[in-house]
Amino acid sequence: MSLLTVEGLSKSFKGLRAVDDVSFEVEQGAILGIIGPNGAGKTTAFNLIAGAIKPDAGTVTLDGKDITGHPPHKIAAAGMARTFQLMRPFYSMDVLQNVTVAVLAGGASEKSARDQAAGIIERIGLSQWRDSPTEGLPTAALKRLELARALAIKPRVLLLDEVLAGLVPAEREPVLGLLEELRTQDGVTLVFVEHIMAAVMRLSDSVLVLNLGQVLTQGSPQEVTSDPRVIEAYLGEEPSA
Amino acid sequence: MTTTTQPAAATKALPKLPWSRHLLVTAVLAVVLIPLPMLLDPAAEAVAIRVLLFAIMSISWNIMSGFGGLFSFGHAAFFGIGAYSTAWLQVEKGVSPWIGMAVGVVIAALFALVMGVLALRYKLKGAYFALVTLAFAEMLRLWATNSDLVNRAVGYHVPLRPEESWWWMQFAPDSANYFFIALGLMILGLLVSILFLRSRAGQFALAARDDDEASAALGIPVVRYKVLTMMVSAALMATAGTLYLQYYLFIDPDLAFGSAMSIQAILPAVIGGVATIWGPVIGAVVLGPLTDITATLLRNPPPFLDFLAGRGGLDVVVYGILLVIIILVLPKGIYGALRDRWSRR
């Protein structure tokens, strides 16, 4: 059985069908990439799945449990974490405190939370910034902080919204390696929205293409990138990096 | 591990948390202040008690509005509940003010619960939230003014007792015991503030203040912790109401629930430093004596201020000017600015 099942998910904003009858399944430990042009409904779909907004129709099932329209904190507690496309650190806290709060939210004891947080920070490669305030951190560090906080609650499913955006290629590589490691070592199931095709090609077991709120197609990275409809809608006439 | 870590950074010890230092300062403060009444004349002691009262009120406001990020413009509601619970039980039912204080604490916390659930249910934020707190306080003021149950606009005088009594929290006007009770409540307020912030609940409240969506995405039930923060704040504010009643021996609806009381809870924190442990205390030390200094000045003005002789309200003018200066020059308050300077060294 799939760990995450989305069926017929729909949401309209003032008549605009932002997400229109979207369905997909993700197996335990799989990585699903979601691509699509700007405005295709990728972030809205994430918000619907994570409970930030309620869908008009459709269901979201996590490990056999219907979580459709549940409040975000319950969905997080059920094992689904997310990152935000625009980074949202707790501004009054330094990096360590940010992750410590997340570890506490994951249910850790007050005694061990800071040590656990420091461990996660080291693993994510944020040690250099551990004791820095979040104000003035470079984008690369803030993106990693998003990831560190999400991991701190030990999710089974991780929704990543453009976790590579704003990073220069040299900064992407370690994050990609980390995401692969999360799957192989921790068995975390990943669903990620990404514009950087090289990352999508490398990580995804399967790629879902959204266009105008609807599923255009789903398949292996190779299938999807050679599909003429995808090329037309998203990649442009001539697929070139 | 594909990421490169810096060996030096990896072994870096975790920074020390500030809590034990805050607790130590609180203990030192208590010990240092206990002998104070022996050094003060009665007039100065009255000022000291007012400073402590301001500090308790502002520590309370700071928990909800500084650390919780829920701007309260109606803290008088909780103050008044404390004062009126104590007065009503004492005058009408002959119950000790200590029990009245406990009852006031419980009712104020429940009132905050209702207020928080209603306001946050409708996702009110910023100025709208502040206006709702004001509306709740005004509602109580109007209710007290018009209700036979609590003596309408007349309010309550605490009946004078023939002898001093701890049970009735009543002493000779210049007794040091009022100071000790006020000091005890302020130390309690500081402890509540520090221990709450250190706790899981307090950390969640801070996270929810900083970003409620990001907090919820981590599994934090944001509304629950915001409401809890309001309840802790309200409970502390109610004790200030009891203290005020027992010291000044009088309460009426305008004093108890009026916006002047709400503002007195806000100002010390703003001047001392919002969302800092020590800001409200420092602000209270600055503001508490102002009324007396200005009153003295008005009674006996120096030659160049002759035109002020016999006028009232100078303290309010000075409050205003001070507030404008602080907000312009030290937007983080006195303590906030000092702390930034220390940590930059």
Task: Give the gist of this structure.
Chain A is of the alpha/beta class and 241 residues long.
Describe this structure in words.
The complex is a heterodimer of chains A (241) and B (345). Chain A has 241 residues and is an alpha/beta fold. Chain A has 2 domains: 1-79 and 155-241, Rossmann fold (3-Layer(aba) Sandwich); 88-154, no CATH class. Helix content of chain A is 39%, strand content 24%. Chain A contains 9 helices and 10 strands. In chain A, strands 6-7-8-3-9-10 form a 6-stranded mixed sheet, with helices on both faces. In chain A, a hairpin with a 2-residue loop joins strand 4 and strand 5 (65-66). Chain A is globular, with a radius of gyration of 18 Å. Chain A starts with a strand and ends in a 6-residue tail after the last helix. The model of chain A has no long low-confidence stretch (mean pLDDT 92). Chain B is built from 17 helices and 2 strands. The radius of gyration of chain B is 22 Å and the shape is globular. With 345 residues, chain B is an all-alpha fold. Chain B starts with 6 loop residues before the first helix and ends with a helix. Helix content of chain B is 71%, strand content 1%. Chain B has helices at 7-10, 19-33, 36-39, 42-67, 76-93, 97-121, 126-146, 176-198, 200-210, 212-217, 222-248, 253-257, 259-272, 279-287, 290-299, 314-329, 333-344, and strands at residues 156-157, 250-251. The longest helix of chain B is centred in the last third of the chain and has 27 residues, at 222-248. In chain B, helix 5 packs antiparallel against helix 6 and helix 5 packs across helix 11. Chain B folds into 2 domains: 39-271, no CATH class; 289-345, no CATH class. Chains A and B meet through helix 2, helix 3, helix 4, helix 5 and helix 6 of A and helix 9 and helix 10 of B.
